[in-house]
């Protein structure tokens, strides 16, 4: 599906390179995205190296993040 809408500030480069139909200037719609990112960082302590939960295995790291996203976003118990 890809990216269908861009929400940016009023920097001229965005206006020059993005079609007006898919470009919205403003931060009003970024709150939801930023909230999801904060929840992901807060609930998965594996993303912060200072915790004892950090895994050096890339596969395990990806699996835990994928399981969290499935549960948080889609309500799936896996």
Cα radius of gyration in angstroms:
17 Å
Provide a count of the helices: 3
**N-to-C terminal Cα separation, in Å?**
25 Å
Regions with little confidence, pLDDT below 50 for 5+ residues: none
**Average pLDDT, all residues:** 79
Give the beta-strand count. Answer: 2
Biggest sheet strand line-up: 1-2
Helix content: 40-55%
Strand content: 5-15%
The SSE string, one letter per element, is: EHEHH
List the helices and strands and how they pair.
Elements: E1 6-8, H1 12-17, E2 23-25, H2 30-43, H3 58-74
Parallel strand pairs: 1-2
Plain-language structure description:
- By secondary structure, the protein is mainly alpha-helical.
- It has one domain (6-74).
- 47% of the residues lie in helices and 8% in strands.
- It has three helices and two strands; from the N terminus they run βαβαα.
- The chain has helices at residues 12-17, 30-43, 58-74, and strands at residues 6-8, 23-25.
- Strands 1-2 form a two-stranded parallel sheet.
- Helix 1 (12-17) links the parallel strand 1 and strand 2.
- The longest helix is centred in the last third of the chain and has 17 residues, at 58-74.
- It is elongated.
- It starts with 5 loop residues before the first strand and ends with a helix.
- The model has no long low-confidence stretch (mean pLDDT 79).
């Amino acid at each position: 599906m890809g990216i269908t809408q861009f929400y940016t500030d009023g920097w001229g480069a965005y206006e020059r390179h993005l079609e007006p139909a898919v470009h919205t200037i403003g931060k009003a719609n970024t709150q939801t995205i930023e909230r999801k990112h904060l929840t992901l960082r807060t609930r998965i302590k594996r993303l912060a190296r200072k915790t004892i939960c950090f895994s050096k295995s890339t596969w395990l790291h990806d699996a835990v993040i994928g399981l969290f996203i499935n549960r948080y976003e889609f309500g799936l118990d896996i």
